[in-house]
Amino acid sequence: MADFKTTYHALPDTEPDEYIACHECAALHRKIPLGEYALAHCARCGAVLFRRATGRIDVLLALALTSAILLIIANSFPIVELQTSGMSSQATLLGAIGQLWREKMYLVAAMMFGSTVLFPAIELGALIYVLAPLAIGRRAPGVKAVIRLIQAARPWGMIEVFMLGTLITLVKLSRAADLTLGPALFAFIALSILLACLSAFEPRHLWHSAASDGSSFPRKTNSIGRTWALLLAAAILYIPANLLPVMHTRSLLGVQDDTIISGIVFFWNSGSWAIAIIIFVASVVVPLLKLAALALLAFTAQRGMRGGQRARARLYRLIERIGRWSMLDVFVVMLTVALMRFGTLIEMSAGSGALAFGAVVILTMLASMQFDPRLIWRSADSPEPDSTASS
């Protein structure tokens, strides 16, 4: 058993358990209080057990409340207004989602609403529900279930990805029209920064302050089978996602269909090389990397292979962090469709490729969630690691 430094928020009249199990490899560690601004890493797989840099409940509550206000503002005002040939068009986030719905792209609209409105709202509301009582030394009813809700909702909130997609869309459309930035754009920028601060704090760090009964993270049943099924579905959809058009354009010059690759070529040929590279990495490299990496992890876990477990654990954490950024191209399509509607002059609509690509992103994210990283260590027979810590 490894001695390991950690930290916690203890409620009045409660004592934390002496040991903690790593949520990724199940290695057991003895808890020792951390110093300020320090991290506690698992001595076996390297996963972060606890961090103290964002440990003040009052600061977290202030960030959550401010983020909730900004989310309301961001959804209440225009993001940007376009003006060309005496005509104008403006877009709000909800308006862009509504436009996809009217075009009968119901699944794409649902994906956009969930990732930019619903799940961020759930996460912030649940955080406030947990943190507000903790700030005065109390515990809210049903707090364990709410903490699990925060953990479930957080990966699906993609405000920062939407923000990057918005900036790319503005660069793309600035060549065709005059832009007027709306208040929602600045609200989204501020919201992205605050959510990045909140993301440094993980909900499980509240576990010992809000759920003091020592509950652990349950095993995932049939993890490998579910992972393979989701990976197979994602791999099949990846082909039409790259071959089918993600956007249709109708103008006085005729009809044009654009795929993900043609969009990358457009930015490259127009001199926006950095944007072309960003979209290529997010829309082509990352999905392929996730498919290959998850297949490797599932195969090695299924075969009970030994060796390289720590490297595979790092690979798992990497694909969990980067998978959401593949939604970037879908956000670009959504905003472009909402803004470029000037009657008979030009009109854009989302293509079936956008739906297929969004499904690939969701399926690969679900696959990584279904995979239980503790299976990497199932056949490990090495002795327990020595005491270690970083700060």
Automatic annotation (TrEMBL):
Cell compartments where the protein resides: Cell inner membrane
Residue ranges that the Swiss-Prot or TrEMBL entry lists as coiled coil: none
Keyword Nucleotide-binding assigned: no
Listed InterPro entries: PqiA-like, PqiA-PqiB_transport
Keywords: Cell inner membrane, Cell membrane, Membrane, Transmembrane, Transmembrane helix
Record PANTHER family: INTERMEMBRANE TRANSPORT PROTEIN PQIA, INTERMEMBRANE TRANSPORT PROTEIN PQIB-RELATED
Protein name as it appears in the record: Paraquat-inducible protein A
Organism: Candidatus Glomeribacter gigasporarum BEG34
